[in-house]
Design a protein that fits this description.
3 helices; CopG family transcriptional regulator; rod-shaped; mainly alpha; 127 residues
Length: 127
């Protein structure tokens, strides 16, 4: 169903519409209808495209903050490890008992750090 509209448009637009519609198969109503439909489709699509941009910008900003925090934590850990290695004297090669205790402690540390990073598998596979 079509609805009649009474619109006021600029003289230049009216003259251009008249010139286009005067050609073969020209119809002012169809031309205006098609042009308005195209404009509304582009305008609606632009609004839909603008909605995710705000969320993506916020997510990018949040990822930047997380990256900054991770860099800070890694730098702090590197300083702690460096200080620990500088302050701890190395064990002599002949002290196998102390080396075994140290190796056992290192294996426990590595397993504790690796546990949250391991892929989720069967319940019995996880310690």
């Amino acid at each position: 169903m079509k609805v009649r509209q009474n619109l006021y448009i600029d003289r230049a637009l009216s003259d251009a519409l008249e010139a286009i519609a005067s050609g073969p198969g020209g119809n002012k109503s169809r031309l205006v209808n098609d042009a308005l439909a195209d404009w509304l489709a582009r305008h609606g699509a632009r609004e839909i495209d603008d909605l995710p941009k705000v969320r993506l910008d916020r997510m990018s900003r949040d990822i930047g903050l997380v990256r900054r925090d991770i860099d800070l934590i890694l730098e702090s850990l590197a300083l702690v490890v460096r200080c620990q290695l500088l302050l701890t004297t190395p064990l002599p090669d002949t002290d196998t008992a102390a080396r075994a205790v140290g190796r056992d402690g290192l294996e426990k540390f590595v397993s504790q750090v690796g546990r949250p990073l391991a892929p989720a598998g069967p319940a019995e596979a996880r310690p």
